[in-house]
Amino acid sequence: MIGTYGAVLSHPGAKAFTLAGLVGRLPISMAGLGIVLLVQASSGSYALAGSVSGAFMVANAGLAIVQGRLLDRVGQGRVVAVTAVLFAVSASLLVVAVQAGWALGWVYVLAALAGGSQPQVGSAVRARWSHVLDRPGDVQTAFALEAVLDEVVFMTGPVLVTLLATSVHPTAGLTAAVVAGAVGGLAFAAQRRTEPPAHPRESGLPDTHGGPGPRPRLPWATVLPLAVVCAALGVLFGAAEVVTVAFSDEQGRESAAGFLLALYALGSLLAGLVVGTITWRSGPDVRVRWGAAAMAVAMVPLAFAPNLVVLGVLLLLGGASISPTMVAAMSLTEASVPRERLTEGMAVMQTGLVAGVAPGAALAGLVVDHVGASQGYLVSVAAGVVAAVAAQAIPRRRGATEPSAPLASS
């Protein structure tokens, strides 16, 4: 396993942009929560804190695809550098606005600016891997590595921001997210030798038919159902997080929720590590379909967990279906989307994932309030079913296999 990941990381510049990308996307799991903790500490209102964080998240999801398009057209270095600075400035002003008691209008505007300008480092890193690596199996391994690093981000970010905001100062959590986004983003942007070439709208570059012309279209027949799969996965995440907290509270151990969610992320992390070492005989479209179905099935037992111990085991096992599905979805995006629009395609998937979290959390909260915590997991089950149905709409790819590292087979 170590040798498999070491092989892709041995490419010139790979370790540097991977590390910068890891730091640069820490705000994904830190900024929203940091805003909640900051605004709540200043105003005493969770409702206000949630609405300000919501403005950040909506702007982030709404402009991610636009930013992805710019990354392809203008180039990663320029776009990530500019957005990293804009994110740092607007988020810093948001901290000042909250602390100084500026008018709420300014708080919402600055939150939206910060969300909209947060660098889309995750999409850029995956597009860069696709540019640096030649073998499809190596790209598959690199995407598995990124899925694992995503889990690391979501395991460590919330813990770090909560610790800083509650133990140091209410501003410390969001400030740490700002520093990570700016430093990581600028470090990533500075690495030009591994940067994919830009593809301006009228670049004169050959299109998919070999002649000069406009940029090729996105294959929406594949992209749209894949985006639905990712959005359903976001709903599944958001619902599972809320319900796990509620279930822990019902059992009189609310503090156990963090540990249980860490087990969920750990299951996904371990599965992601394994996925990167497998020689797949099936194409990514097949694996997306099986992975989405597995997610739906894995969520069902959660609704019947009698206690926290059993729930922890089920969350660990259920998490194992997450990374394989995400890796397959990103691999299929990489294989289907024209190179000139790859970062934009990746951003569509990331946007779907992010956009699903808040509705999933809200719907699960309604179910918990009316019928109890355990039944709230049925929202995750329903999201898994939606993902499985959407995955069936993905066009079949004939003869698509992905040779990879010779450590295992499936």
Write a brief structural summary:
This protein is mostly helical. The chain is built from 16 helices and two strands.
Q: Mind sketching the topology for me?
A:
Layout: H1 2-9, H2 14-24, H3 27-43, H4 46-74, H5 76-100, H6 104-117, H7 121-132, H8 136-167, H9 172-189, H10 220-250, H11 257-275, E1 278-279, H12 284-299, H13 308-319, H14 322-336, H15 342-371, H16 373-392, E2 408-409
Parallel strand pairs: 1-2
Helix pairs in contact: 1-8, 2-7, 2-9, 3-4, 3-8, 3-9, 4-5, 4-6, 4-15, 5-6, 5-9, 7-8, 7-15, 8-9, 8-11, 8-14, 10-11, 10-14, 10-15, 10-16, 11-13, 11-14, 12-14, 12-16, 14-15, 15-16
What does this structure look like?
- It is a multi-pass membrane protein.
- GO terms for molecular function: transmembrane transporter activity.
- Residues 222-410 form the Major facilitator superfamily (MFS) profile domain.
- It is found in: Cell membrane.
- It is a single chain.
- By secondary structure, this protein is mainly alpha-helical.
- The chain has 16 helices and two strands.
- Strands 1-2 form a two-stranded parallel ribbon.
- Helix 2 runs antiparallel to helix 7 (121-132).
- The relative contact order is 0.15.
- Mean pLDDT is 85; it is low at 203-212 and 399-410.
Total helical segments: 16
Q: Would you count the extended β strands for me?
A: 2
Radius of gyration: 21 Å
Helicity level, as a percent range? over 70%
The main sheet comes to: 2 strands, parallel
Q: In CATH, what is the homologous superfamily of the largest domain?
A: MFS general substrate transporter like domains
Q: What percentage of amino acids are in beta strands?
A: under 5%
| Domains (count) | 2
CATH topology of the largest domain: Growth Hormone, Chain: A
Question: Which strand order spans the largest sheet, edge to edge or round the barrel?
Answer: 1-2
